[in-house]
Amino acid sequence: MSQQNDTGVISLIAGAALNQYDLVKMDGATFRQVIVTGAGDATIGSTRVAAESGKDIGVNLIKSKPGTIIAIADGVVAVNADCYTGAAGTVSATILGSIIGTALNAASAAGDHVEILPA
User: Could you tell me if 27 and 54 lie in one domain?
Assistant: First the structure.
């Protein structure tokens, strides 16, 4: 069944345990299921909360949600740096894959939160 979502936030199913603010992608093997991105992967957005595998999870869609999203840094990210997907659902300043946005705040270490203005 088809449906339309105009909010920029969608409810999907966690394909594994997910943390709040993980960058995720669709799991090609299962309907409406998301898993964390790998370095350079295309992302659909970031998780709103943590969820156990098999549970519903809200995802802020990077291409259609108004405003910004938050992601977890894989290391140092400077203010105004171009952002890319890093390993294990993180955001990175290392050029790999397509740009996902611009960092609006700095991250000084892995695990820091980065507010991203989508590209």
Answer: yes
